[in-house]
Design a protein that fits this description.
The structure holds three protein chains of three kinds. Chain A is mainly α. Helices cover 69% and strands 0% of the residues of chain A. The longest helix of chain A has 34 residues. Chain C has 19 helices and ten strands. In chain C, strand 4 and strand 5 form a beta hairpin. The chains are: A mainly alpha, B mainly alpha, C alpha/beta.
Chain lengths: 297, 298, 432
């Protein structure tokens, strides 16, 4: 094998390894931190291979029992964030909100995108452009008005507020994405259905949706991710654990004056689980859906 | 088409499109109008009883403030690094994902992780890693013998911005590389075969086939990354608090501060309007540049 | 059991039920807002209060600390029913000027009897235009903490008494390679403790004033206490290199963790951190931390107070509600029987500081504090502390400007005096 051949086959492997290490290192660091006692996390230099392992931090988040070293009650008790115990309800809130947003996108987005891709009606162009252009407003610019709208609707600190806002922010992408996708589905199949007396809606549900399932899955996944990841809006329109989502709780925990870093690491690990599982499940659809859309002019 | 059916179709069209339009309108037109009106008044949250009309005063105050200029400088520096890096690295990583190496399947899974976690979480992780007193980054450099004592990465203006940039790239490259991967996979293999037959090298093929064909993706990536870069907020909120001495106070963080820390909603709204206009202008500029480029290339 | 006896029992039961219903008709409902800290303890206190005061029901609403001011502002402006609320010396001027909360002495003259019990800084922090607006929930001071072992290794037997001593001792430690940067601060741009720490150093001087009687800044004059402190900080960081440059990214928790790990010998921190630092499970160096009176001429420092306040809305609801509100205030911030029941509980269970000076005589409290600190010194420091001046509504935004400017000086972008002048200019602009 010539040197050049070695380079050609070896280099990508080396680069791939480097890339994987670069991506995974922070995750590994957090995961390792979550299973060590607090004292171990502040060594200089750190212990690259943990010496003492413990599940105390997890136990605290799940049961409220203090990790060893924090057990002593009375005035000398060290501080540990009670906020971290909100991580579980916050995960539930986040999941409820993100799933609702994904479903709203699926229903509203599919209906509208199919119409934009097939039907001609007065105002179709301007309405389509309006929906897409709305995404240009920077989130910070609309934070206060959003707060006021939500307040006026009586939805402060409710799931509905977050679901509405996230849906508004994800729909433009979903509509654009699906419109582009639907345009590539040949209309012949539906035409046959119309002859059989199907309505538009029936044709969409029975014929188009099954063929475009990967794209629908991709769009759903994207809106789920956006909603799950949102921090600024959730920060403004939620105020208690009734509706606070996991990014808000983890950020509050991390900057809380009561914090134990091991416990923060646990909340970070817990936060990563749902979207990572979601990303794994929808991985194929995401790439496949994107191939079609990004190559359409 | 018979008029009856035409009528029914139109009714169906509106019934399906209007819910989306209305909900988007409620959360765009009203907020924008509100921001516009607020920006013309003196609205300070701790003085709720008096909100006089002040014309363009808020705009003048904002533009004249030294922090406005400084935060735009920081923002543009940040974007000038973040956009090309996210684009080029995304393009490069996409090739690795697309390569037929034994690691590719693993890499295709791993690459999704940074994208999947909330930005604010990645900020917390990176703030921890770059921490000057006990961070793993310092620890690694120290263990490798590259430094004698821990360095204050987040306490110096330039390196603090670089740390934020590093965390930002880590979070953004996965998405850009997936977008590019999709684009790469859509290029027919025959084009490369033909180029090889013509005696073109790898570089020539890259320049003549790959780059032009992924141009639509590049456009999407550039526009998206510019927007994301300009409105970066989460990372700053948890990594630096805009410091040291305001060195990482990018424009949207400055906006957040004027509204939710100083409670000066009037000035905040003026800033918001300026930011929205800047975004629209930037994106229009991109579209123009790239469109003409595209026509020129073909 | 005979039917006669059942009838008698039934009769008695009826009398008791109707009687209590007549007397306890329509319990007074109070709404109490707090920031979320140990809500389980608050709820338990409420339960005990309700048991001791049948006829009063308290509904608790809690909000995250970072958003508490926003939420309360929205509640007051929108007239959301709120009777009692946590407040802070920081917001007193704003809330009182807007007539959102009322002076307690206007409604309950008996509150004056409590004044001799409270530390002076706490009274100052709860007083607006000469009137007392609250009873303390907790109060604390900013103190000087040192690692005794490091000090001994450097050859010193007593903690520093002046800022020059601090420099001298820090240089000695640096020279003997005990620790590279003996001093660390929490000087991240936006951390609220920054200004408190700076002011507590300023208040350690005799001529400590930052503002004149008309609230005009005088701290930007050459040779002012603020100038001396700022110059000391700049020298410590840039000339002597005894202050950790990482201070500029550091907030309270990381500072405490770094100190606990043995990277810091001297720090200025809110007092409750000492309890944490000396907790064995949490820190490698636990047990080695002591506190000294704030170095300087007068050993003064900043004291701050968080208190229970009654809203205007509650006062307007009539005498029955006011009476219930007073019972609540007295139960939570004052005496029940002869004891400060709730305040003592916070101190024992959670280590919170207090402004109720008689508690320093309580043997239980003394024993508890001495486990991690020094109760005599603490009492002494509490008496030397003072509340922050000029807590105007724009104080918060000004402090952010101040911190950002001061950090420019610490980075060497401007001189200490230039930084002070820049933030004083901001104050003048905001005051207009």
């Amino acid at each position: 094998m010539s040197g050049r051949r070695v380079l050609r086959s070896g280099l990508p492997v080396v680069l791939s390894l480097a890339l994987a290490a670069y991506i995974l290192a922070p995750f590994a660091w957090v995961a390792l931190s979550s299973i060590q006692p607090e004292k171990e996390l502040f060594r200089v230099p750190p212990r690259w291979i943990p010496r003492v392992l413990t599940v105390d931090n997890y136990r605290f988040v799940f049961t409220g029992r203090f990790p060893a070293g924090y057990e002593e009650t009375g005035i000398a008790r060290g501080r540990i964030s009670e906020k971290a115990r909100d991580a579980l309800p916050a995960l539930r809130n986040s999941t409820i909100v993100a799933v609702s947003v994904a479903l709203a996108n699926l229903v509203l987005g599919t209906l509208a995108a199919y119409t934009f891709s097939r039907l001609r009606f007065p105002g179709a162009g301007p309405l389509y452009s309006f929906i897409l252009a709305s995404r240009l407003l920077p989130p910070m610019a609309v934070a206060i008005p959003y707060y006021l709208i939500v307040n006026r609707l009586g939805l402060l600190d409710r799931y509905a507020a977050l679901i509405l806002i996230h849906t508004v922010f994800t729909l433009p992408f979903t509509v654009w994405f699906l419109t582009v996708y639907f345009r590539r589905v040949p209309p012949d199949l539906e035409e046959a259905a119309f002859v059989d007396g199907c309505t538009r809606l029936q044709a969409l549900v029975r014929i188009v949706v099954p063929v475009t399932a990967p794209a629908l899955a991709a769009a759903t996944a994207f809106s789920f991710m956006f909603s799950y990841n949102d921090f600024p809006f959730a920060l403004f329109v939620t105020s208690t654990i009734r509706s606070q989502t996991i990014p808000v709780i983890v950020a509050n925990t991390a900057i809380n004056p009561d914090v134990s870093f091991g416990v923060v690491a646990v909340t970070v690990v817990l936060t990563m689980l749902p979207p990572v599982a979601f990303a794994m499940a929808f991985r194929r659809y995401i790439t496949r859906g994107l191939i079609t859309v990004t190559t359409t002019r | 088409m018979p008029p009856r059916r035409q009528y029914r179709e139109t009714r169906y069209a509106y019934a399906t499109v209007l819910p989306v339009v209305l909900i988007v309108a409620l959360f765009t037109l009203y907020p924008f109008a509100f921001a516009l009106l607020t920006s013309l008044r003196e609205v300070v949250l701790y003085r709720p009883w008096s909100q006089p009309f002040v014309g363009l005063k808020n705009y003048l105050d904002v533009v004249r403030s030294e922090f406005f200029v400084a935060s735009w400088q920081h923002t543009l520096t940040f974007v000038a690094w973040a956009v090309p890096l996210a684009t080029l690295l995304g393009f490069a990583v996409a090739h690795l994902l697309n390569a037929r190496t034994p690691l590719a399947p693993l890499l295709n899974v791993v690459i999704l992780l940074p994208w999947a976690i909330p930005t604010v979480i990645s900020g917390i992780i990176w703030a921890w890693i770059f921490n000057s007193s006990y961070g793993a980054f310092n620890g690694a450099l120290y263990s490798l013998g590259l430094i004698d004592s821990y360095l204050p990465w987040l306490s110096r203006p330039r390196s603090a911005l670089a740390c934020v940039l590093f965390a930002h790239i880590w979070k953004e490259v996965p998405l850009t590389s997936i977008l590019y991967l999709a684009a790469l996979q859509a290029i027919p293999e025959e084009l490369y075969d033909a180029a090889r037959v013509d005696g073109a090298g790898a570089l020539a093929a890259l320049r003549r086939i790959t780059v032009p064909l992924v141009l639509p993706t590049t456009l999407i990536v550039l526009v998206y990354e510019t927007m994301v870069g300009i409105v970066t907020f989460d990372l700053l909120y948890v990594m630096t608090g805009g410091g040291p001495a305001g060195a990482t106070s990018l424009i949207s963080y400055y906006l957040y501060n004027s509204m939710f820390v100083a409670f000066n909603f009037g000035q905040g709204a003026a800033l918001a309007v300026l930011l929205a206009l800047a975004l629209v202008a930037l994106i229009a500029l991109y579209l123009r540049l790239l469109r003409s480029e595209e026509i020129y290339a073909t | 059991m005979g039917s006669r006896r059942i009838a008698v029992l039934a009769f008695l039961l009826t009398v008791i039920l109707t009687g209590s219903a007549a007397f306890g008709a329509a319990p007074v409902q109070l709404t109490f807002t707090v920031w979320s800290y140990s809500t389980d303890v608050i709820l338990d206190n409420i339960k005990k209060f309700e048991a001791a005061n049948p006829g009063i029901k308290v509904a608790l609403q809690d909000f995250a600390w970072e958003k508490y001011v926003d939420v309360m502002t929205a509640r007051f402006v929108g007239k959301t029913p709120t009777d009692l609320a946590y407040s802070s010396d920081h917001w007193l001027q704003q809330w009182a000027a807007a007539n959102w909360i009322v002076p307690l002495e206007d409604y309950f003259p008996q509150v004056n009897a409590y004044k001799p019990d409270f530390a002076p800084y706490a009274i100052e922090g709860m007083t607006y235009k000469g009137k007392l607006y609250g009873l303390p929930y907790y109060a604390d001071t900013i103190i000087f903490i040192y690692n005794e072992e490091m000090l001994k290794r450097a050859g010193f037997s007593a903690p520093p008494a002046t800022w020059d001593d601090v420099t001298k001792m820090a240089l000695a430690m640096k020279e003997k390679k005990i620790v590279e940067y003996p001093i660390m601060f929490q000087f991240q741009d936006i951390t609220p403790w920054y200004i408190e720490v700076f002011l507590s150093m300023v208040y350690s001087y005799k001529d400590y004033r930052m503002f004149d009687t008309n609230l005009n800044p005088i701290y930007d004059r050459e040779g002012s206490a603020a100038h001396k402190v700022a110059q000391w900080l700049v020298d410590g960081m840039r000339k002597h290199k005894i202050i950790n440059p990482a201070s500029l990214e550091t907030t309270e928790i990381p500072l405490v963790k770094a100190m606990g790990a043995g990277q810091v010998a001297f720090a200025v921190l809110p007092k409750y951190n000492l309890a944490d630092l000396n907790t064995p499970g949490a820190h490698a160096q636990a047990g080695k931390f002591k506190f000294a009176l704030m170095p300087g001429e007068s050993h003064g420092t900043v004291g701050f107070v968080r208190f229970y306040a009654m809203t205007k809305m509650a006062a307007d609801r009539g005498p029955a509600v006011r009476e219930a509100a007073w019972k609540f205030l007295e139960y939570f911030g004052g005496r029940t029987g002869n004891e400060f029941v709730v305040v003592k509980r916070w101190a024992l269970d959670k280590g919170l500081g207090f402004a109720q000076l008689p508690l320093y005589k309580d043997p239980q409290i003394r024993a508890a504090i001495n486990k991690w600190g020094n109760v005599t010194l603490e009492e002494q420091q509490a008496k030397l502390a003072r509340a922050k001046e000029a807590l105007t509504p724009f104080w918060g935004s000004w402090s952010l400007e101040f911190q950002k400017e001061m950090n420019k000086a610490l980075l060497g972008q401007k001189s200490a005096l230039e930084a002070l002048k820049a933030s004083a200019a901001k104050w003048r602009e905001m005051k207009k």
